[in-house]
Specification:
By secondary structure, the protein is an alpha/beta fold. It has helices at 20-29, 89-99, 120-136, 151-157, 177-181, 201-209, 224-242, and strands at residues 3-6, 11-12, 15-17, 37-42, 46-56, 59-69, 77-83, 104-109, 144-145, 149-150, 164-169, 188-193, 213-215. Helix 2 (89-99) packs parallel to helix 3 and helix 2 (89-99) packs parallel to helix 7 (224-242). The longest helix is centred in the last third of the chain and has 19 residues, at 224-242. The chain starts with a strand and ends with a helix.
Length: 243
């Protein structure tokens, strides 16, 4: 069943008003019609299962079949700091990590980045990839994609409260992820992934300044577009063993 994200003001009694992009996706691409059902995530906290009764332009007459309160898949949020990779790998990072429930993406410029900014086209492709992956993987929210900034500015802007766990994947780290999070209480994880050439000395000094904890993903060096996905999977696995 298809899932879309709406604000509460888009639905009034049995009328649903779609924006142009969502209407095109549902009615033209997915070819939904009368008597088809669809899931609506309202304000990221309520899920409605509705039946389409009629269609007039971008407005649907609907019947609510069922509804539930939504809870996040994890008790903590994950933010991903991704050093800008070459080509269009950032779009792939956004797609894969959205499927694993990342709540926000921070593209950054680091010491060894060959790419210094996301073009408007690449930013739009990444945003479209996030929205598509969130719908396909039945997430409860669409992750936020931030504009490109320096690593130092990004680290300074991200929450620094005592229950934010700040992690950096670094091939020179002596300990694994499970050891880093052992006996640590947190409600927000900030995970930093380097570019193709890895993090440089200047980057590591920045991470130390902002109290990021380095960890190793293992004996193998992963591609930058796969490292975030692997780290989040390791994080979930390590936490499940602690329960």
């Amino acid at each position: 069943m298809h899932r879309i994200f709406i604000d509460h003001h888009q639905i009034t009694e049995n009328q649903l008003q779609l924006d142009h992009a969502t209407a095109h996706h549902l009615l033209t691409v997915c070819r939904l019609s009368e008597n088809d059902s669809v899931e609506l995530v309202v304000n990221q906290d309520r899920l409605l299962q509705v039946k389409i009764l009629s269609i007039e332009g971008h407005q649907l007459e609907i019947s609510i079949l069922d509804q539930w309160a939504l809870n996040a898949h994890r008790i903590f949020q994950i933010s991903l700091i991704q050093a800008l990779p070459k080509q269009d790998k950032f779009t792939e990072v956004c797609r894969m990590c959205t499927e694993l429930g990342v709540s926000s993406f921070y593209p950054v410029k680091t010491q060894y980045c060959d790419v210094k900014d996301l073009s408007d086209n690449k930013f739009r492709r990444a945003q479209m990839s996030i929205e598509s992956a969130a719908k396909q993987s039945k997430q409860v929210l669409i992750p936020k994609l931030y504009s490109t900034q320096s690593l130092e500015a990004c680290c300074a802007a991200i929450s620094k409260d005592t229950q934010t766990l700040r992690l950096v994947a670094y091939e020179g780290a002596a300990i694994g992820l499970g050891d880093v999070i052992d006996n640590t209480l947190f409600h927000h994880v900030v995970l930093a992934i380097g570019p193709e050439g890895g993090f440089g000395p200047e980057d590591l000094r920045t991470f130390e300044q902002f109290q990021f904890k380095p960890f190793s993903l293992g004996q193998f060096i992963l591609r930058t577009e796969h490292a975030g996905f692997a780290a989040i999977s390791q994080l979930d696995g390590a936490l499940s063993q602690k329960d």
